[in-house]
Please model this.
Amino acid sequence: MLIFGHPWVESPNFVKVFSVEEISKSTPRDILLLEPLNVSIDLVRHCRSNELEFALTISTLKEALFANALGAGYVLCQHELGIEIQKIAEEYLFDTRILVLIEEEREIESMARFGIDGVVFSQAIVQP
Model:
């Protein structure tokens, strides 16, 4: 299981970006966080053409399917949606990893029991 934002585990930050200019200010270690897909498709294309690692915040199964098709490294979502999508991601052998947003350490075990690819604490998400 991937764990982002916990003080015991060194991990990159997810940096929210809303423009190419903000992308240019990011570091190679950052994972670019784009949201929502319907307004960030041009940024997705920019990331793909420049081979930049990116994640998408999603709120539907359809967005997860598109995120995988578009080459997102990760999708970030809430618990219930993550549980639903993880099963489908395994069935279709997604390259995209399913990450659930959590606030408390005790939620890690719960997400592990559902086979979720990883969890993200809010402190791992930063604004540029």
Remarks:
- The chain has a mean pLDDT of 96.
- The first strand starts at residue 2 and ends at 4.
